Each structure stands twice: as structure tokens, then as C-alpha cells.
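ingest -> validate -> predict -> emit
validate: passed (alphabet ok, no gaps, 153 aa)
predict: started
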Amino acid sequence: MTRSIDYGNLMHRAMRSLIQEVLSDVAENGLPGAHHFFITFDTRADGVEMADWLHSRYPEEMTVVIQHWFDNLNVDDDGFGVTLNFGNNPEPLYIPYDAIQTFVDPSVEFGLRFETQDSEEEDAPEEDGDDDPPPAGDRPEAEVVSLDKFRKS
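emit:
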């Protein structure tokens, strides 16, 4: 069995850790300046807790905004809980990090997108008998993340 580095999984864990750190800071100190978050998550994911009427309205995915009014922001190792206002109805939510599809802070043009993978289909090796790599033009492009714009001068 060949051992390899699972960069995709490592990157997802690092990005989820970043979200945990940011939300922990906001829970402790509040939102600084114009920062606010749009968080889209899979409402069907294991561990998601939300009111039945919200789940009926958003059976697959939902985007929440943490900005002007939120309460009870509690962050743990698996996800976060927050109470948000839906038409003057405060509702508690619990969102596991694994359910998050996108995390965006538009005030600083920062965003993360978590690509979902169908583990059975993508983890299965292709059995086409061709051991040669595809020609350069047929290879999928690697996603390169540039951190230069986040560096302080």
C-alpha cells in the first residue's frame, strides 16, 4: 500500500481551525470594525441543530449572517452555536464545522469554500489499465492559494 499526503484533508482541517479561531475571538471580544460573516452550511449534515420550521424552509442549505444582532455565540471543537433573529424570532442554531460550505467576510474580501467529495466514487482507484500520466493539457489544474494579499508590508 502506497502512503501519500492527503493535502485536501489537511487544508480543510486548517481552514476549519481558522474559522474556529475567528469565531472564538468574536465570541470573546465581539465583531471588530465592519467585519461580518456569511456562513453557508448543509442543513442535512450530521450534528446541525435548528428549529423544524427553519429546516422545512431550508431543507438542503442555508446562509446565515453574523453581523448586527447575534447572541449566545458559543464555539467548541466541533462547531458553534449562535442565536440569530429570523423575522423578530430569535432562534438558536448549532452548526458543525463539517457542515460549513462557505465562510465569507466581505468587509475584507476574504472567503473560504469547502468542496464536497463523494468519498466512495472519488476514493475508488480508476481501473482503466493506463498507468501513464495524462498529457499535460489533459491534467486537471491544481488549485493554488496565494497568501500574498494577506501579508503585511
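The helical segments are 7-29, 52-57, 119-123.
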